[in-house]
Design brief:
alpha+beta, CRO Repressor, about 190 residues
Length: about 190
């Protein structure tokens, strides 16, 4: 039992190279297929990501099901990810090339249909994203950007100047009303 658990069935070098090759292939594939896969917008995308991890499992571990082999594979994945992230952090231009650029989906309060189509997002999926961030409609949004990481940066529209002035005026009138009430209350006492 202990022998099967901890003794490697394949050479250590193979256990190290397999996760590196799979890692690099997945980075390239996710870059090609876009930010949508990272955003996990709908059940179909989630199924793809979960299936993807299961699909590459055997490519990473090979014919070795030992605990030692699994730990070597996991350690290699974590190490290569750390090294790549550290390298890209120091080389911002290369990082932009690998990660891609942000895509503006709403600009100036208007949906940019061609960018929505390029990212394969439907209008209802965009609304779902906005709802999750506390917006009830596109009309409330000044700008929405899909970042290379798959996250959405949403900026609320500033209220019109007339609304701000009106609310300020109401606040001041309420303050004056409270002062007058205090003065009137002080004279009758």
């Amino acid at each position: 039992m202990w022998n099967e658990m901890f003794v490697l069935m394949v050479p250590v070098l193979e256990k190290v190279l397999r996760p590196i090759v799979v890692y690099l292939a997945l980075v390239v594939l996710l870059r090609i297929f876009g930010k949508r896969e990272l955003a996990q917008l709908n059940p179909f995308d989630l199924v793809v990501l979960l299936s993807l991890s299961n699909t590459v499992q055997n490519a990473i571990i090979g014919n070795d099901n030992s605990v030692t082999g699994g730990l070597i594979g996991a350690s290699t994945l974590l190490a290569i990810n750390y090294l790549v992230v550290r390298f890209l952090f120091k080389h911002r231009r290369l990082d932009e090339l690998v990660e891609g650029k942000s895509t503006t989906l709403i600009d100036g309060g208007k949906v940019v249909q061609k960018n929505l189509a390029r990212e394969l997002l439907s209008h209802s999926e965009l609304l779902t994203v906005l709802h999750r961030q506390g917006f009830s409609d596109v009309d409330e949004v000044e700008q929405c950007v899909l970042e290379p990481s798959g996250t959405f940066a949403v900026k609320r529209k500033d209220p019109p100047t007339s609304d701000v002035q009106y609310l300020d005026l109401v606040r001041r009138l309420e303050g004056l009303d409270a002062r007058l009430a205090a003065l009137a209350g002080g004279k009758s006492a």
